[in-house]
Amino acid sequence: MLAHLVPNRCPWSGLILLAGAMLPAAAQKPDALAKWESFDFVHNLVTADQLKDLSPTQLKYMRGIVFGKHGRVFDEAAIQDWLKTRPWYRPDPKYKVTVLNDTERADMDAIKEAEFHKHEYIEPGDLKFYRDKTFEAKALGEHSSIEWTIMRAEVEAIHGKTFTDQPWLQSFFAERYWYRPDPKYSPAVLSDIERKNIATIAAAVKTQRKVALAPGDMGLFQETAIAPELLKGLSLYELRLLRNEVYARRGKRFHTGWIQNYFTDEGWYRPHKDYREPKLSAIEARNVAVIVEAETRMHDSLTTKPIDVALFDNLYLEDARKLREEIYAHHGKIFTDHWTNGYFRSFKWYKPDPNFSVKSLSSLEKRNAAVILAYEKKARQEGAATAA
User: Fold this and answer.
1) Candidates 2.40.50.140, 1.20.1050.10, 1.20.58.1690, 3.40.50.300; correct CATH number of 222-304?
2) For a surface tag, which of 57, 60, 259, 311 has the fewest beta carbons within 10 Å of its beta carbon?
């Protein structure tokens, strides 16, 4: 987990700190992993009985061995530093996860399951073990924004969903040995159990973030007015989704690609065949106005006052990126990323400027962009461990 989000627990569920603390002990017991360094994972299967007595750190280094035999370079320093001490390790910058054969993948399944049984709380990578059983919120513990994003997405990624609107998330799953993208993926393939688990994760996220609303909740407010304070802690991206969700629940079909794609993946969405504008009730129209007011305040604050670092307590990494890029978009920056370009072109205030330069930003805007970027870098560094 990210330390700034959960101060009483170490980043990424304690794995980085745990590895750092236990590495000396592992070094003092070279025989603990010696037999696994010479084990032929390419042709032989590992059994649960062989793994049951290994510590979480030893199991992690076993994963390092399976991948390390093919030259994978790990972002997680603990594994990479350990691999560098092994005489057989030859880092390969061209490594791709596709090099693993079916036997190695089965061995990884066994190792991951052994790790799963030693977890105090559900971690990223564990959701495959809950395809046929539900869990309660207390089993989830606390996590960073990145971990929560991965865990919810993992339920869908197991079925091959691709995440075109979140390139970093797509890249993350592309590196997972078990991931098989399916261009025909549909939310309909999710079982009732998986849907309940996604809902449990969403509720736990709201509790930890101390937010009252999140995208997907507007079905509860079709006949109930939203008080402005209920929107506290939400990002601009989330506010925009909430606003458009009011229309989506009335069956609106959106011309804007990123919005249409988002709601298409929601199991409750039933779009009309045409693009007619749905008629909202008086309460729904008021709710839209309240959300628009919150959006306007946040949008204007990016260029008129120093950003409050407390905002990051509730902000997803990808939302932080959008927030920073909105500062540039305010001055007409044209984005090379297809999704980002479409995202900003969907707003009436955006005026593309081929002559954009960061010099056009005020000193306040430059400071705000730098503060957000620093948060992004820190979050990505702390999140590197999950890529193992």
Assistant:
1) 1.20.58.1690
2) 311
- The answer to whether 95 touches 70, Cβ cutoff 8 Å, is yes
Q: What percent of the chain is helix, strand and coil (3-state, nearest 5)?
A: 60, 0, 40
- Give pLDDT tens digits for 272-300: 999 989 999 999 999 999 999 999 999 89
Helix (H, G, I), strand (E, B) or coil at 161: coil
Write the DSSP assignment of 215-250 as a string of letters. TT-GGGGSSSPPPGGGGTT--HHHHHHHHHHHHHTT
Compute the distance between CA of residue 222 and CA of residue 248 in angstroms, rounded to an integer: 12
- For the chain, the C-alpha Rg in angstroms (whole number) is 23
Model pTM score: 0.79
Single-letter amino acid code for the residue at 116: F
The architecture (CATH level 2) of 310-388 comes to Up-down Bundle (1.20)
The span from the CA of 230 to the CA of 38, in Å, is: 57
Domain 12-208 has CATH 1.20.58.1690: yes
| DSSP H helical ranges for 14-55 | 15-28, 31-37, 48-51
C-alpha separations of 183 from 179, 186, 342 in Å: 13, 9, 21
Which residue blocks in 175-229 are alpha helix, DSSP H? 192-209
